[in-house]
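Why does residue order matter? Because the sequence determines the fold. Keep that principle in mind as you read this record.
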Amino acid sequence: MVNGHLRRGLKGFDIVKWVLFPIALTAVAILILFPLIMMFKGSVFTPEGKFGFFYFLNIFKQKVLFKAFRNSMVIAVWATFLSLLTGVPMAWAVSRTDIPLKNFIRNLALVSMVTPPFLGAIAWIFLLGPGAGKLNVLFKELFHTKVTLFNVFSIEGIIFVIAMYVYPFVFINTASVLDNMDSSLEDAANMLGASKWKTAFKITLPLVAPAIISGAILSFLEALALFGVPAVLGMSRGIFTLTTQIYQLFHYPPQFQQGAALAIPLVVITGVLLIFQYLYLGKKQFVLISGKTTQPTIIKLGKAKWPVLGYCVLVVSLAVIVPYFMLLLISLSKVWGVPLTLSNLTLHNFEFILFHYRLSQKSFLNSFFLAFLAATIAVFLALIVVIYNKRTENVGRGFLHFMMVLPFAIPGVAMAVAFLWAYIRPPFMLYGTIWILLAAYVARRIPLAYMACSDGLTQINLELEESARIIGASWFRSIMNITVPLLKISLVSGWILIFISSFREISASILLYSTNNEVIAVTIFTLFEEGEFEALAALSILVLLITLIFVAGSRKVVGKSFAQVS
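Structure:
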């Protein structure tokens, strides 16, 4: 009764219906719907205005385009497979066994998810480059051979590096479900004589299968959409994916229509998998949390816990410790190829980046400015839409919900292509300005704020707002004085996630930036292309430090649920 009464009372409220909703609808249409329409239009019309599917057919006719498509699928499939091999056993180990260092493993898995993958790719060049990579050199010296241990400039190298930064989607998703799962079925199986290993495979694994599949889908989509890793490891060797091939198509002579057509498969594949995740997996969810307070049974591994721990530590070391320690060493070196002795130690690289290199100074300011504004605008718009959707019965709620989650189906490079088509001509001529980057960042990251606010508002009882209205408060005042303060944690969590992801964004930035509007990721990419490895490493360490500070602060404010993907 209360819920129905409150909703009926809000139905005709003028501020919501005539002010907040038009603002949100207009912003969403301009930021998301308009660019997509323009991109689809560009992919089916020639410059002369002739309609056809020529550019889509070219994907299969032109060898270089089809090879890029095939490479993307191969890399995404194998990276997802490796994510399952690492993420699922690690999740089971930290949630259901007695291995030590559980928090250490969880925290480093989170770090590998929120830090920029292209920095890891650069670090692995110094470790596994075929000529001077430290691990390859060490291997040759130890075994007195000329054989290279591993060439990171290859399809296999790209798969390996991407897997190290997408496995957390499987790990965090699976571990979250295992942590909160009711153990009554497992206890019943144990009471009937099933061994702990049989229970794990026959009971536990099927129950968490939807979470595992969901994590695998997210890993696949992230691997498919990444630009930085294949750009750093593949382009110089003629290995192209959909994202890097689109980047090439927008260089001289630009092929805008073909670039738009090549972005469409990224959107379609991502959209289909997200729809599958929502419709199919939603029906496959099992009741994992009951009203009981039983804790999952911890399996005592005995001596086996040490190899299990070793496996987990190896994975997080390959993803975080080894590559970023390598970047730190290079950042402290006068010349990175020379052994790191006292005479070769220096802080000059950090001094150069912070005080003498104009491009890095400008890009720091631009990245902070854009990340701050993008997070603030996205949270504000998301809050309006969530309140409109959850607290009114006005028209358009379903459409707004769809539009707010749609950017999840648009990889960064595809979003950049859409924005180029939308904002390179009237009525919105934003290309060549910093505002096109801001618009792209808000559009890309607004689902993070929307889902955080939506989850938070779902947990707030409507009776709190109704009580305020009974004692004379207006609807708007009850929302501002009761609901918004109660949403503080969700708002902060969404804001920080958007800030972090926007601060190190490269996929959209690489196509949309212009002179004097460079951002951190673009500057790092520029230093890499110019061979300024010591300065590049110093800038990378600063970016990692800023990211870790924000993550640590977020865990303090929001709690351990920060950046959970389940």
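The CA atoms of residues 317 and 323 lie 8 Å apart.
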